[in-house]
Every structure is written in C-alpha cells, then in structure tokens.
Prior knowledge:
149 residues; mainly alpha; Arc Repressor Mutant, subunit A; two-stranded antiparallel ribbon; 7 helices; 2 strands; 66% helix
Amino acid sequence: MKLQECINFLLTNAQNTVFTYFKHELHGLDVTPIQYATLKCLWEQDGQMPSQLAETLCLDSSTVTGILSRLEDKHLLTRDFSTEDRRKVIVHLTDEGKALEKPVSDIITRLNNEVTAGLSKKDMDVFHHHLKVITDNAAQLNQATGDKR
C-alpha cells in the first residue's frame, strides 16, 4: 500500500493542514483550536467538571488540566471548588470568556465553510458518516487490544 492510501496518513495530513489554518486564523483572538473546543463546551454548558470536558473532547485529564490552566491564565475561565463536594472542581467562564463566543464562533463558521468549499450538504453527511464508521471500527479494535482510548 502506498503511503498516500493509508487512512492514518490521510486523516493525519488533513487534520494537521486544517489545524494549522484554524490556528493561524484564531491567533488574533489568542485562542488555539483546542482552546476553542474547550470554550465551546463551556459556552454550551457552563459549570462543568474537568472530567466532563475530557470525556467530551476525547482527551486525557492531564491534557485538559493544561488547557484549563492556559485559559485561566488568559482570564477566560475560573476553576472553583464545588460547594457540595470540595474534592470536585467546577469550571466557569469569566465575562471575558463569554464575550469571546460570538467572535470565535463567527471565525470557526467561516473557516469550516472555507475548508469544506465544494462539498454539498449530502457530501458532508456522507463524510461525517464515513468518519463515524472509521472511528467506531478503530474504537472496537482498540477495545479488543485492551487500549481504552
């Protein structure tokens, strides 16, 4: 099999290329693509625990901790102890974090439209379906080998 036919190579190449473009375009707002994804989770439901964010973002907890630290340093969120259980940390957006929702979302919408230009809604539906099939197949294979990621 040629390298250019390997699904891992194709997915990695596409992801890296799109990520680089998104990172460049979000730079002016001082937000990275993964920080956007974290903020998006909180814009949809503020007051989540880091473990909830990690599950939604399919990341390990130490990675999420680092992302949250950087967003906290930018004053976009706070991490507070739960009033019911002091062992639990709850992540809340600051006013600055809430204020970024519209400008960042507008950029993300534009970028998604740009990188999918030429693909119809039907094409995108098929693309999403195929990605889900690939992801589900890989997840089943990972479970079979004992890797729970």
